[in-house]
User: Fold this.
Amino acid sequence: MSAGFPEALQVSFADAINRLVDWLVVHYGDQLRSISDQLLQLLVGLENLLRLIPWWLLLVLVGLMAWHASRSLLRSVVMVGLLAFIGMLGLWDKLLQTLALVLVSTGLCVLVGVPLGILLATRPLARRLLMPVLDVMQTLPTFVYLIPVLMLFGLGKVPAIFATLVYALPPLVRLTQLGLSQIDPSLLQAAHGLGASRWQRLRRIALPLALPSIMAGLNQSVMMALSMVVVASMIGARGLGEDVLAGIQTLNVGQGVEAGLAIVALAMVIDRISQAYGRKAR
Assistant:
């Protein structure tokens, strides 16, 4: 006799979710395709812009950015060397594709995450309602929300952007909310007493004081976006993850290791520069 869970108590909401996705496709398919086309134009345009920059000039720009952030010549040389290492592996074009995907995804994270963090910091009800949603976004397996994203946007770069956005957004929202919540209330009260409006208190006091925490959240979002590049390659987005996936499919260990090291090198460059700007903000 089976000791399984009783069938009479089992429930399933899979059909309801499928009907919801079908309804979205039927009623909002045109709007979704319009959004998809605009994001694709933005991403492809950024890729083409990066390709127009000579490789040596891009290395110089990264070196200058690293020096401006850290004021360390050695660190700047190391950052330039890591990017040059990716080019020496013959992965320069795929590096630019991955970099464009990460920049667009991170930009969307900032546009959505910082306002959400402000909302959570100033509205207790919104915090109680949205915190469980952020928990689900961080713990839900990636392939679960890839299914509806693929149905709504199809294969390609755009679903990769949305999948990366879902995965990388929560840290920025949480750390923005944390940074704003840790501000001394007496500072805001003093500004209010001097006649500052709510927008002035937010822009001139709260956000500058919370900037280190926001930068830490941005750093975490970028790292999580980079960790999605292999998954993104599985749904049609090209880049460094494409070579990792090809190495898995063909059992080409060398190809997979090279692409993996290139992803690590890019992650180190972005992480060190963003961390240095975060310390500078502090």
About this structure: The chain has one domain: 16-281.
